[in-house]
């Protein structure tokens, strides 16, 4: 994916994960984008470790993997705080 598509994908997934984890009011747009990109990486890595494909492009499967990864990242940040 190109850089612009990663930013859009990161914004969507970070925003969705922050809504699910109820942290949307605490984060801004830049944080949502960064969270979404990191979440896509974490989700893809975990799926690859389990033998499934990770983030494969701009589709619903990849969106679900990235949202799950971003939710895991939010959960880890909560535990570390």
From TrEMBL:
User: Which residue windows are coiled coil?
Assistant: none
Q: Which UniProt keywords apply?
A: Cell membrane, Membrane, Transmembrane, Transmembrane helix
Q: Which GO terms describe its cellular component?
A: plasma membrane
Q: Which superkingdom does the taxonomy of this entry point to?
A: Bacteria
- Compartmental location: Cell membrane
InterPro entries assigned: Transgly_assoc
Chain segments annotated as transmembrane: 6-21, 33-54, 60-80
Entries under Pfam families matching the protein: Transgly_assoc (PF04226)
Q: How does it sit in the membrane?
A: Multi-pass membrane protein
**Keyword Protein biosynthesis attached:** no
Q: Which family does it belong to?
A: Belongs to the UPF0410 family.
- Name of protein: Transglycosylase
**Source organism per UniProt:** Candidatus Gottesmanbacteria bacterium RBG_16_52_11
């Amino acid at each position: 994916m190109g850089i612009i598509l990663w930013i859009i994908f990161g914004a969507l997934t970070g925003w969705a994960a922050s809504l699910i984890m109820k942290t949307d009011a605490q984060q801004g747009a830049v944080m949502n984008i960064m969270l979404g990109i990191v979440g896509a990486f974490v989700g893809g890595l975990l799926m690859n470790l389990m033998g499934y494909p990770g983030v494969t492009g701009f589709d619903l499967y990849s969106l679900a993997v990235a949202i799950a990864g971003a939710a895991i990242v939010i959960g880890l940040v909560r535990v570390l705080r």
